[in-house]
């Protein structure tokens, strides 16, 4: 007797309904990516290890899934290395490939490899799974999809404006009105660090500030203090924890605070341009707001930093984020290529739509018409009808065996089929078919030769 | 200076045009899967090793990509095993997961794990990548997509009829008229082996017969002889190598030849039913023909065996195949679940469409409208227009910087944009915009407030 099968922890099977719901989100995201002029690329699931290793910090390196070399993988291990029994020395000898950890590094690699064929500015989107050997927990998986859109080779702030519009378009289309698009600028963070005399501690400063949501003002102050930022500096930065007022009021506070910092002033100027332009164009349903505590942990952002919060009342954390990084491809030998991009958090958006009941009901309707099966002769007439309906583009099926009619109806119910067609002995003799509307329970009879009348009826629905 | 990056051998990057072409095929396949009542599922990219190992023969086991355990993977290796330095003993200790090798075994695993929630008959489709550590060569990759549709829990031959119709529907929709759907039945092969007294050598017999296309009649005879099939038996089977005539003529030859074999007669009966039913329903453009040499190498088929050949004149081998297997899930402890399924060979279909020039030209048009950028003020008006066009669903973009107009036009040409919009100083002053039709070269001027007129013009295209 075979062992009961299972799947690796942190991975998931997706049922038909789950796939339909995920595709619903992905299709809307894709549609707007394309409307905004982005083009899809795809990269391999695994990369050469040296493409990925060292790009995500020590923790990242640890979380990258490595693939064992095929065949006799010990062949390349010399006696001395083997004898040392050292995991990391051995890893580089027995594994040369690794699963993609995100879509950004493979994209940078793609741009460098294809730089002569790409028409810059290059607006690409990419929707593919990534893998991380993270400890699985609620909402965190070892295999999950990323949905990224990036522009490389364009310095203009129009890109930032466009990404705000793109977030607005997608979330409005998903029926998620009222998301909060938070924006900050790395130059403002640098300016603040400079203004309070903690310029050298910028990274520690931003990492601490980024945690405001999670650990509160006191926690942030303690962490800054632990990292060696003076009490005096912390006191100077404290007002920022509770910056209030309209966006333009906040911008003018920042402008004054950072007037002596070249970086900081530049950051305020950039943010001001983005706000004014977005305001002039208008948003459908999203809010755009300043959040000077926003750093997104990542050190590669150099300009705008974006993050999207679910509509108020839904406790989900960020459902999207991104920013500008001035040197995307330098790691692969192509310097000075500016990039800016955003991503959508598919799993979290799914949970938000589920919680708010915003998935269209029709997603659970994978079959529009089921013909019941009353035996060989009747089935033949039914199959002919089903073929015609399919040719017209309807999702139609014939129950494959003449099981008890009750069982066939049960199947129709479980698959949420709105119309069931019956061609029994009587109907076959009369060259007709009966259509049962499963919601209302009403029945209509059509002549087989008039099947087109039924289709017209369906199309008007 | 960083090393020039590369990708692992046997893997591919897909450019925007390639993704568009692949999606064109996949979308048509998906559309018909759904019209025929199939539902999508997705399974994880990696499975527990014991789910996959031993399911594809020794050669298959060797070709499965194994994933190194995370962290200190040597922890679980005892001293004695380590000292032996034995690759396969070590593999099971340092690797517990492996990349999916096909979609059939994960599907069987899925069915067993979810048997209580599935409404049988279960018609599922699955389009996901698989990985094989095969030696890469022309048309053979280490990462490639499979597109599978299977029905489990239905014994009826109506399924086989439906799969023939499905192949016909997909290939007709792809503009690949005249594909040849070859069909055979494992029971016929068994009957032949029985009739010639080589019943015990059925596997060797079918494997040899399957190679007729590649090694010719003499090659097949030699291989059969090498495997211990008698000259007398080979003489009996020889007429089958060149079975001719209409399908019904061939069926009647087989019927006579196999009249003493229970299995064989059953196979002929099944094939006859499928042919008669398909003929009664009619096919759009495909041919259906008997091929008694068809075995598809795989030993798990128990009934129908299907394979699709590209239209004559294209030398590509099979572009799809499948069949019935009476015991899909037995390997995971759920016996007697009959399955029947087919798959589409995405990479080969792509090559055929490319060779015949059947991809729609519009696939290379990823952007419908590009607004040129004449500077900040003009760009603002252009951005407003672009936003309106996008809202109406058009793929529109604004060039992100006021680069030389020649450079912007070059970009428009490279991206195959059909319409370029110009809002320069003069147009801004006159509150108008100029539309240049890139194919005809003609220019039209519209008032900015009448942008809807332009959209109506586009929609009529």
TrEMBL record, chains A, B:
Residues covered by the Aminoacyl-transfer RNA synthetases class-II family profile domain: 1-400
Primary location: cytoplasm
Subcellular location: Cytoplasm
Segments passing through the bilayer: none
Alphabetic keyword roster: Aminoacyl-tRNA synthetase, ATP-binding, Cytoplasm, Ligase, Nucleotide-binding, Protein biosynthesis
InterPro entries in the record: aa-tRNA-synth_II, aa-tRNA-synth_II/BPL/LPL, Anticodon-bd, Anticodon-bd_dom_sf, His-tRNA-ligase, HisRS-like_core, HisRS/HisZ, HisRS_anticodon
A Pfam family this chain is assigned to: HGTP_anticodon
Molecular function GO terms recorded: histidine-tRNA ligase activity
Signal peptide boundaries: none
CDD domains registered for this protein in UniProt: HisRS-like_core, HisRS_anticodon
Known EC number: 6.1.1.21
Highest rank taxon of the organism: Bacteria
Stated family: Belongs to the class-II aminoacyl-tRNA synthetase family.
Protein name in the entry: Histidine--tRNA ligase
Species, as recorded: Pricia mediterranea
């Amino acid at each position: 007797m075979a062992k009961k099968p299972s799947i690796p922890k942190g991975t998931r099977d997706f049922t038909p309904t789950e796939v339909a719901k995920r595709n619903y989100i992905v299709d809307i995201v894709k549609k707007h990516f394309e409307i905004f002029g982005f083009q899809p690329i795809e990269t391999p699931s695994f990369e050469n290890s040296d493409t990925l290793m060292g790009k995500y910090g020590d923790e990242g390196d640890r979380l990258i899934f490595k693939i064992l070399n095929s065949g006799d993988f010990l062949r390349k291990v010399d006696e001395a290395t083997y004898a040392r029994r050292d995991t990391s020395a051995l890893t580089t000898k027995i594994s040369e490939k690794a699963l993609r950890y995100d879509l950004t590094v493979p994209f940078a690699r793609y741009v460098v490899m294809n730089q002569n064929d790409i028409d810059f500015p290059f607006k690409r989107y990419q929707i593919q799974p990534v893998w991380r050997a993270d400890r699985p927990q609620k909402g965190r998986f070892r295999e999950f999809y990323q949905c990224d859109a990036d522009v490389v080779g364009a310095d203009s702030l129009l890109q930032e404006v466009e990404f705000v519009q793109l977030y607005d378009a997608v979330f409005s289309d998903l029926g998620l009105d009222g998301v909060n698009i938070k924006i900050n600028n790395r130059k403002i963070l640098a300016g603040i660090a400079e203004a309070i005399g903690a310029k050298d501690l910028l990274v520690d400063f931003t990492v601490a500030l980024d945690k405001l949501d999670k650990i509160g003002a006191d926690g942030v102050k303690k962490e800054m203090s632990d990292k060696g930022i003076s009490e005096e500096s912390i006191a100077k930065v404290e007002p920022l924890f509770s910056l209030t007022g309209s966006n333009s009021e906040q911008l003018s506070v920042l402008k004054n605070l950072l007037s002596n910092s070249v970086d900081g002033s530049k950051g305020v100027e950039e943010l001001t341009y983005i706000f004014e332009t977005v305001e002039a164009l208008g948003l459908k349903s999203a809010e755009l707001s300043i959040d000077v505590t926003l750093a997104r942990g990542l050190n590669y952002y150099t300009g705008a930093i974006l993050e999207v919060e679910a509509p108020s009342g839904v406790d989900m954390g960020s459902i999207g984020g991104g920013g500008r990084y001035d040197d995307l491809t330098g790691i692969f030998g192509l310097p000075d290529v500016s990039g800016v991009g955003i991503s959508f958090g598919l799993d979290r958006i799914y949970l938000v739509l589920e919680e708010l009941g915003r998935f269209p009901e029709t997603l659970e309707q994978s079959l529009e018409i089921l013909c019941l099966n009353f035996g060989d002769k009747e089935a033949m007439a039914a199959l002919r009808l089903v073929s015609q309906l399919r040719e017209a583009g309807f999702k139609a099926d014939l129950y494959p065996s003449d099981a008890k009619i009750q069982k066939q109806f049960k199947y129709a119910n479980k698959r949420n089929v709105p119309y069931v067609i019956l061609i029994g002995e009587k109907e076959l003799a009369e060259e007709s078919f009966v259509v049962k509307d499963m919601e209302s329970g009403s029945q209509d009879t059509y002549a087989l030769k008039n099947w087109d009348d039924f289709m017209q009826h369906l199309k008007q629905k």
